[in-house]
Amino acid sequence: MLALLAWHSRTELLRVLRAVSPYWFAASVVAGVCLNVVYGLLFDAILCKYTGHSHRRRHVAAFMMSQPGKYLPGKLWQAAMQSIALAGQSSVTSVGVANIELSLVAVLHATGLGVACLLASRPPLALLAAVAALAIGWAFVRLPSAKLLLRILPRLRKWLRTPHDEATSVPVRSLWLFGLTAASLAVNFAASWFLLIAAHTTLSPLQLAHLLASLWLGIAASLLALPVPAGLGIREAAVAGFGALLAPDVPAALLISIALLARCWQLLVDVASVLVGSMLWRGARLQRGK
Fold it and tell me: How many angstroms separate the CA atoms of 227 and 224, rounded?
């Protein structure tokens, strides 16, 4: 699917790649790595909620080093890599639950940003959509959401091999969680906006907003495609599909080219995240050794 889309839009894709600003693209990659750091902090907060223990640097490092796991089929390997890295500190159940919550928060944020950009011509409604995404994401992380999921989804509970009462919750600072949720939403927007600026498109501001809406809704769709590793092909096809509905005045070849550019951006962000995570992990080990 990915190769077919690339071949179909090859002329526009080459034009977009040649016009990319290296400085803005580098800024988008840095923002993407920062986004993974924020998600790593949310991962730590969720684990702290269910285990009562926070090992912030190790949790962030384990989350960032596990990024290659999402390119394997099944959406399980990222959590497995984290469990191996955190052996003896957090149970497999807690890590699995944290990944489920974090994935749902990412879907909420991508959907909220997509809807906000779709309503860009009506700023009050766009702001309301962004605030709603922020509030729902914060509440989802703040409350024992996984505990409710385990109660209503017995198959998930069986897969995680946990009884009803194993997933307990402890209070986590609301202000800290709110700050992390707001930061993840803001950095997510900044990274995508920098990427569009780097592409040097000649679209109007409203067209750019609709393009961003298609991109974020495509990301949300790829996150929900559980069997597909990293949503390869699903995201790009979804961007093209949403773009045809939401931004019919934007050429399909340009939509696909931006989606493929975003895929290249994602790969670079994941590689950089592994490197940063490795440095954090080394620093955590040195700190423990003192």
Answer: 9
